[in-house]
Amino acid sequence: MRWILDLLGAREGCRYDHMGQEFLTHGVWDQECSEHPANVRFHNHISGKALLELRAETAQTGGFRGVMTIRNPLEMVISSYCYHHRGAEPWNSISDGMASMHPKDGVPEMARRMLPVVYNMVQAYQVTKPEVYVSRFERMTGSSTGFNQTVQEMLDFLFGNEVSDNFKRRALDAAVHEDLNRGEFGYSFTDHTNDVNHTSDEQEMDEARSYLSLVDKDLMAHYKEMQKALGYSTE
């Protein structure tokens, strides 16, 4: 979205709860939305409540369009463990002690810590229609074809005929810098605040997955329900 917004010439945005990194290259992007409600907004942890509030806020001014990404909830747990185990975001309470935790302890603990984040994602997903396009992480990262198709659908959903086909082609050409399968270093590849790579390799992910069986049974049942709500297999 940063590539697309830059091409549009966006110069003002806001974010909720002062969370999230730079999403505009030029102009102001880090002001708080509750104080400066700009037309371009970023929510780092969207929820159903937040979407319903935005729907009500914009009901008399033409509404809004947005994009959110969902991911298999259990894969989010595994990815979050691997990411914070590498030492990323030491200021984040979700990472407390995680760098020194073996996956035997870290994966079940991360499942507990990630529950509110995943719950908010599910609640948001259930109230997205008709204003929000939902992209699936697995499709965007699985192949360059899936990435291109997702970005094209995003552009069509957000802008329809309000921008030219030429603009959409340029936007896609710019956005492909974020395609994991092209091996480029786009904005999303590195956490520039502490220089920790955002991507995990399959070996460390597989090792962490092997400890999902140690997650509390009641908690795992809740995760299975959330998988089903998002359309993921529970196998």
Automatic annotation (TrEMBL):
<dbReference type="InterPro" id="IPR027417">
    <property type="entry name" value="P-loop_NTPase"/>
</dbReference>
<protein>
    <recommendedName>
        <fullName>Protein-tyrosine sulfotransferase</fullName>
    </recommendedName>
</protein>
